[in-house]
Amino acid sequence: MIFNNNIIEHLLSFLWKEKSFSDNLPKYIGQGYVVGLLVFILYLEVSPSLGGIWFRKNNKGVRKMNFLGLFHYLTASFYNKQLWNPKIWDVNVIIFTSVFTISYVSFRYILSVC
Question: Which sequence spans correspond to the domains of the chain?
């Protein structure tokens, strides 16, 4: 046998080495943001205060996806001051994804400590 077990175990432990929380922090932030954005997009459609942002009926009464409307709403927080009213922070993409990302990273930190 060319390789003994110690060499193989060392190689496997090097390849699948557990990284510390701080090493994974950028990955967790990215995951939290992407998941938060997807949750926000789904929430927009079922939100009692909005709804119908990216699924709308056209002039023929057929429900169609409206990606342009979704894009405009996702960028509205950068120029629409009304979205910064604390009463409607649940429909502000920046606030929603920030809180979601912080919560996700905190949850991952708790999991890494336990």
Answer: 19-113
